[in-house]
Amino acid sequence: MNKIDYLRISLIDRCNFRCQYCMPEGAELDYILRQELLTNEEILTLLKKVFIPLGFCKFRLTGGEPLLRPGLVNLVRDIASLPQTQDLAMTTNGFLLANMARELYNAGLRRINISLDSLNPNTFDTIIGNRGRSRWQQTWAGILAAHQVGFDPLKLNVVVIPGLNDSEVPDLAALTIDRNWHVRFIEFMPIGNNTLFSQRAWISSEQLRQQIRARWGLIESSVRGNGPADVFQIPGAKGTLGFISQMSECFCDRCNRVRLSADGWLRPCLLNETGQIDLKTALRTGISPDRLQAKVRKLLEIKPEINFQQRNSGTQTGWYSRTMSQIGG
Ligand code: SAM
Ligand code: SF4
């Protein structure tokens, strides 16, 4: 059985982008009220008293957009300085990163994934739902700032949407030729925007690899992460290419993670809420750390069964009403 030792922590469900694949156009999302967000102290208590004693040692901060979270740098410093933290990473859209990269690095963050779906500012703005002044330049500046302060590995996440950015796949892949960056192509999942998904559908990792092979050639990489990506390289490139194929392949049996939402719900699976626990209410009503641990242990025990249900429930064509920004991507 897989050791479950990786917690993805959503810090906020709000976002300064409105990516087409993540948020339904025009729909008003019910944002979590500030007083309902887990505080930094509550997150640290949960880590120290519940998750770390249960063997968790890898943490990723996400959202919504985590750079919007008040008190972020202090939280990063506190988590990074826990002796049991083996890995602390963040997923961000990078828009506010240029001014925060150094502070986050100094606070102890070492790994960062930045979403970048296009090299073309117009396409980028279309995808992120921006109608004002282009946001591409500032996002790119955030990526360069992260590179300059020394984030390693620096990963770029690309969700590939047919007809929107799939033709850019070879150019995005080429970013790895001269830089030690990891560009990861993510298959578009039917979470967040049903209309877009039914109009555009999704494109498989293998089709993307064919495009890259035709332009640059492609070899399997000896580098292997501990996540779900299959890793390749353009021959002679400094960086790598990852393919996350949750639609064309099922990697539930390799899953080593659970997710904590910004309002304190612990979910066993991105796509399945079965057995989820409201840790915030438990914490605020004074339940002892031992009882909290027992609740989480029970969820971890049923996770393989939940993964199995997920694999067999036809979810690869199903539709999820909660967005990635709400669940914590
Ligand atoms: N705001 C940050 C960002 O965009 O990187 C972090 C949160 S976001 C929800 C986390 C990841 O989920 C991003 O890499 C995003 O591309 C991915 N994502 C969101 N909706 C998706 C979907 N429908 N299919 C595949 N990936 C999705
Ligand atoms: Fe915001 Fe990230 Fe969702 Fe885009 S993918 S809308 S940046 S939470």
CATH class: Alpha Beta
CATH T-level fold name = TIM Barrel
How far from one another are the termini?
24 Å
Count of individual domains = 1
Class per helix and strand makeup: alpha/beta
Helical run tally: 11
Q: Can you write the helix and strand succession as a string?
A: EHEHEHEHHEHEHHEEEEEEHHH
Q: Judging by the overall fold, what is the CATH architecture?
A: Alpha-Beta Barrel
Per CATH, the superfamily is Aldolase class I
What would you report as the Rg, rounded to the nearest angstrom? 19 Å
Indicate the proportion of strand residues: 15-25%
How many beta-strand runs? 12
| Overall geometry | globular
Q: Give the overall pLDDT as a whole number.
A: 91
Percent of residues in helices comes to: 25-40%
For the biggest β-sheet, the strand order reads: 7-8-9-6-5-4-3-2-1-10-11-12
Name every ligand kind in the structure.
Answer: S-adenosylmethionine, iron/sulfur cluster
Describe the structure.
With 329 residues, this protein is an alpha/beta fold. It has one domain (6-327): TIM Barrel, CATH 3.20.20.70. The protein has eleven helices and twelve strands. It has helices at 40-51, 72-80, 101-106, 121-128, 136-149, 169-174, 194-200, 205-216, 279-284, 289-311, 324-327; strands at 6-10, 58-62, 87-92, 111-115, 154-160, 181-187, 219-220, 230-233, 240-244, 257-260, 265-267, 277-278. Helix 1 (40-51) packs across helix 10. It is globular and about 60 Å long. Bound molecules: S-adenosylmethionine and iron/sulfur cluster. S-adenosylmethionine is lined by residues 15, 21-22, 62-63, 65, 91-93, 115, 157, 159, 186, 188-189, 191-192, 324-325, 329.
